[in-house]
Known about the structure:
mainly alpha
Amino acid sequence: MRIMINWADYWQYVYWMIAYLIGGISFAYLIGRVRFRLDLRQHGSGNLGATNVLRVLGKGWGFSCLFLDVLKGALPVYLSIQRWDYANHYAVVMTGIFAILGHIFTPYLGFRGGKGVATSLGVFAMLVPYPVLLGLLLFFIALLLTGYVALGSLVAGFSVPLISLFFYGWETNELLLTILFLVGILVFYTHRSNIRKMLTGRERKISHFWNHKER
């Protein structure tokens, strides 16, 4: 996976824009508005992500939103791989990044979206599947031990880049690993309020709303 940048390939810019627009589709917002006439920005944690859908609308809708958020990250990357087959690895990786940015800064809702974990999962499952599987395992371990979804997300966001570094090495994967570490930092940034709540004991555990909808 060596870095190969072909700035003259205009198709990569088209793919990036499409990835951003797909990533910007807020399924949490759509599920709340279309099905329940609710704006999830005004309920629960106020976050437009699968965890808040689970929190406010229940497990079925929460997992549906999770699946769709993962899919909107994986699909653009899959399509870009079909086009370039890693011949332009830069274009493939950046397609995934634009999908993640679309989720976090959705253009349809004033650039306020979710925290990017599920969409990042879809993106990197296509790029580094084995580290993602191990990261998911660590996510569930952290979740089971503490009950905090946010802590599991932080553990996964931190561990996937480190595991990828171990699996693939730095020399021929500088771009991909740099992006992974940057996304890990971005996950910490988008979870800054959760970190503050965990430190002060105000973060709610998943058991609190697993069987109780908050609306």
